[in-house]
Give the backbone structure.
Amino acid sequence: MKGILIVDDSLFMRRHLRNILIESNYREIIEAENGMDAIHKYKIYSPEIVLMDITMPVLNGMDALKEIINIDPQAKVIICSSLGGQQIIIKEAIKIGAIDFVVKPHFHNLVTIVNRHFTLNT
């Protein structure tokens, strides 16, 4: 199994997401603390799924999403954000190439969404 790349500037949030995924038997988890780091790690690891925050320093999630989709048009990026005005952000992210979204901090459906996309096209 290819890994999951968690992209969030909050170490707490990355650890929290990691723990949820580990409890569901996902073991290959990579972390990035900003969009630039995410692009770099995507190129190295080619993860199966990317969980991408939107608001981050250095390079935000929307710009990182664009770059990852440019690198790999088949990339599976799930937006994971707590932004207000989510509908606009989510629509824009889907238009760019994101495949789904999770609203922080409500992760009750995170594993269901990740499982759904791991089984697609494999």
In short: The domain at 4-119 is CATH 3.40.50.2300 (Rossmann fold). The radius of gyration is 13 Å.
